[in-house]
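Supplementary Note 3. Input sequence used for the single-chain structure prediction.
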Amino acid sequence: MPKEFSRLDRIGDQIQKELAQLIMREVKDPRLGMVTINAVKVSKDLGYADIYISLLTTEDLTEESGEVQDSLKVLRNVSGFLRSQLGKAMKIRVIPQLRFHFDTLIGQSRHIDNLINQAVGNRPVVQRDNELGDDEQGDDQDNQPGNRPESDV
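The predicted structure, written as discrete structure tokens, is reproduced below.
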């Protein structure tokens, strides 16, 4: 039976957890914003780990934004330190080189969400249970397991 997750997936998940803690606790650069690590993809030979980050802000950011460029620059500068700390925390022979990238999926999903809202509007697509008529709710309550009529057997 195949494993649910491959070894590379498990290593990527562990790197993601460890990096999130290291960035939060060890990196004290004021240029670094509120960074979220969205995904880590590890190469098959463990030579490289591509780390996709996003920044917590209220404005839409692109890869060309100054704040994004500053954060990526800081992370690339401290990647050697982060890699050495990963080596101490993880029990694997080879620690991959860390390559940081800005994750553009959040901006794309916001854009698609806006397009859907423009097309559909604010009305709900699926009717909620509390919006059903009284007749429909009454029928459902009669069919509940505790509300069945007793039979004369």
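Residues 6 and 12 are 10 Å apart (CA to CA). The longest strand covers residues 35-42.
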